[in-house]
Structure prediction request, 789 residues.
Amino acid sequence: MKKLHISKRIIKTKWLALLLVTLFLIVLGRTVNNLSLTKSATVIGVGIDYAENSFIVTMQSVIVQGSSSESASGVSYVSFTEKAPTIDAAADKIEQKMGLTISLSHCNIVIMSLSALTVNHIRTFEPLIRSMGLPEQALVVSTAVSPEELLSLKVATTLNVPFYLQTALLENTGSDGIVRTTVKDFFAKVTARSRAALLPFIEKMPLEDQPLSPSEEQKDFVKLKTDKTVAVNDKSNAVLDAELSKIAAIYNSKTVFGLLSIKLESGEIINFRVLKKDQKKKINGRSVETEIKLAVQYEEAQNLAQDSLLQSNDPLVMKAAKELEKKLTTELMLCYEFSKEMNIDFLELENFVYQKVGYTLEKDCLNTISFNPKVKIEVKETS
Amino acid sequence: MINYGLRNNLPSNTIYNSQVGALIFCCCLVFRISSLPGLISDYMHSSTLWVYLLLAAFELVGFTFVYVFFRFGGDSFLTSVNSKAYKLILVVLAAFMTMKVIIFYSYSSLFLAREMFINATPMLFFIVLLIPIIYLGIKGVRTIARTAEIFMILLFIGLMINLVFLKTELDIGRNMPILSMEPSAFFKGAFKYGFWLGDAMPLLFIKMQKKKLPYVGMSVFTVFALIIVTVLLGVAMYGDSLSYVANLTVELAGFNQLSLEIGRMEWIALIVVITMAIISLSTQFWGITACCERICKTKKPAQIIFPALLIAVIAGSPSLQAVADIALTEAGYVFFAVAIGAPLSILAVFAYNKKKFPEEYEKNKPLPEPPDTRVNTQGLNNENKGPAALSPSPLEETGGTPSEAQ
Prediction:
């Protein structure tokens, strides 16, 4: 009986020891941040620019104001920018300026200027991930204006750029044909044989009609265009126009949705909505053949000679689908020509050939690879 | 419900096959799905998965040797005949396991200090990790096995949550080509990771009590399936950038779709990795003490010297990274040779002595198990404990210290 008692005690001690150790580690860790919200700055968007051998880092943060009896509690968004030879040093300066501890664990957007994309990509992101806890699911975008300026803009109803881009890109609102590249995917692509990735390219446009509000006059709002992409590799980058961006997004994305529009020679405009994408690749030596099958539904037609509505099996719809096939195939071929011209393999052709040929494939051989794209459109009858 | 009184009646170093399965699960899984994928990817690139498959084949062969040895009661027999060759191999094994614990302990501490708990002092992790490892190692294999058995289901669920709710972009094609370099360079590189083999070596010193289900086989299958699936997904997710991933299991948890609803999920993987690392390292520590017991007739030197050595290495080393990097040097080939060669040599020594001392083997031979020992061991009388349990431990006969039998 005595033995039994000792054993039970040992078991209890073991549980207690393991529980204490586990709790000890969790409570002290970054995964359970014990910093008070009023003493920390939760960064929602980071911008990185590069000029004169220095990084210009901008961080937009949510600041939770104190809730003492004298002051009203609330939330505000502030942006701080600092320039330093390293990203860590710039972040330190921002912390000193703010008087708050920076946390990137809720940051979903990283905005890179075109010049920042010319710096070693891994070294640029490494301090953000390792030291500041940037999630690898955060989206990477690029911009024509400086990230500092972009983060200071007022857009639409969300008031700040990171939330707008998060909604537009992550939740797919109004973002037909846009690539979505996370930090993890960006790393995977730029370290692959092709060494190239596509990023959404954000442009600032004037907003002619400022939003109306009964309480106060609204002004200085701008519109952000997200329909272009920038192709990046370790040496250079190049911006694709909206049409090429759309087909490049279809080619590169696993799931495709959104509208495809075609204007026929006779003037009719027919719209289709993409339901599903299937893509097959065939690699034969240094030749890559790809066939993209898009299941679409007929959505809308304008500029019609007839008065009646079209059905999905109407010959005009079928003709439009054929024209769209040709158009998309041509655009995909233009993407290939553009990638060869810029020597940025954003169609990942070198990757595919390398996977088939193996280690004997020489590096930087995009110009020796031929590409034969084919796009097929299947119009589905839906309600 | 666990009947502690029943389990205490098992002879020294005897554990159930379900507990052997749990030990295999914890020991053979953790370091292969955490730090190793990134380390292999750094050199082997798209061949990472294929290196894993190659190493898994060798590990299975090594484990088969270990399994055959403990199933035939090799340890009791070779101890009773006082085999010099066995003792010599145990010296090599003790050195192998000592290096394993020192290097894995350095890896674990570095990971926690650098990647997870940046603001805390590294000494905190050394102490926090050291206490349970030493505690469990001294308590013995039955305590470790029970701990592993209790935690295993939670660890398994934690890992499955990681995999089932994984939501991210994957490209399985990133696992190709199989040979990312010339075949000679591939094989030269692949065998350099021999340090990660031989995690089941301490099982050489156990005796197994069977339950109805084939838990060992189930566990081995589960472990290798989980390893291969995790690495396959890891390469599909990261491609060559997998080399920047310090701990794949923790990083996978970051892409758990539940994190969109309830916040970051890394803590689940963190608990899984830490718990498994503690169980794995304490099993290796117990293995060292078991070697010492068979060589010196007492565990005490190992129980005192090993923790002191570990603390001395951690406190005295100018760089823990340098300690951890030993695993990636040419020494890896030596570790590979030991991981496969040692159990094979032990088996050969066992076969030779079995032929030489057939009467002694008959005395130590484990008797066949009854159909369902779980039912038959419900009482506390000796006749109900199963025939294997009736044979006295040679160590007990030779003055060993069966400290776990209390």
About this structure: Residues 1-6, 373-406 of chain B have pLDDT under 50 and may be disordered. Chain B is about 70% helix and 0% strand. The longest strand of chain B covers residues 14-16.
